[in-house]
Specification:
- By secondary structure, this protein is an alpha+beta fold.
- It contains six helices and five strands; from the N terminus they run E-E-H-H-H-E-H-H-E-E-H.
- Strands 3-5-4 form a three-stranded antiparallel β-sheet. The protein has a two-stranded antiparallel ribbon with strand order 1-2.
- A hairpin with a 4-residue loop joins strand 1 and strand 2 (about 25).
- It starts with 17 loop residues before the first strand and ends in a 39-residue tail after the last helix.
Length: about 160
């Protein structure tokens, strides 16, 4: 006859498990992934991935000369608000941009202006002069801060460190 082990019920601390039973989702790896420190190569790779989309590059250049709201970026880029908001979310998650609310408008600005140095250097590497990265007229923007109607270019940005 086989003896079964005695029934013991130990309480296991499962608070580290990220779960949402209402949605049927359990992520037992959430804790482990959050506590794992990335190596420097992964950090650089994550940064490059976050700025790899052409629209995000345009957004960063537009924001780089000050700050911009979504309606401002809509007018500049000619894209839908939802798509621009998705791109802004990616840039916010990587902490490249920050935001502030003023009434019904949210204004975005660079948290890490050094990203502009990376974009300018990338342009130089592929042979694109800064003057050819023109940002279109945004006079159709309806936000209260958009009284400018001139074209902005990356040459309006501070000169990249180490560049002549």
């Amino acid at each position: 006859m086989i003896k079964s082990p005695p029934e013991t019920h130990h309480k296991v601390n499962m608070s580290f498990i990220n779960c949402d039973p209402s949605r049927g989702k359990y992520n037992i790896f959430g804790f482990w992934n959050m506590s794992r420190k990335k190596n420097p190569h992964e950090e650089i790779s994550d940064l490059m991935k976050s700025i790899s989309n052409p629209v995000r590059v345009q957004i960063l250049i537009a924001i780089g000369v000050g700050e911009a709201c979504v309606c401002h970026l809509e007018a500049l880029l000619g894209l839908r608000q939802a798509y621009i908001s998705q791109q802004l979310m990616i840039l916010r998650e990587t902490k490249i941009i920050t935001s502030r609310r003023d009434g019904k408008y949210i204004y975005y600005r660079l948290a890490k202006p050094e990203v502009l140095d990376i974009l300018q250097a990338a342009g130089e590497i592929v042979g694109i002069p800064n003057s050819s990265l023109v940002i279109r007229d945004h006079s159709s923007c309806q936000c209260p801060n958009c009284s400018l109607s001139e074209e902005l270019t990356p040459t309006d940005l501070p000169v990249r460190r180490g560049a002549a």
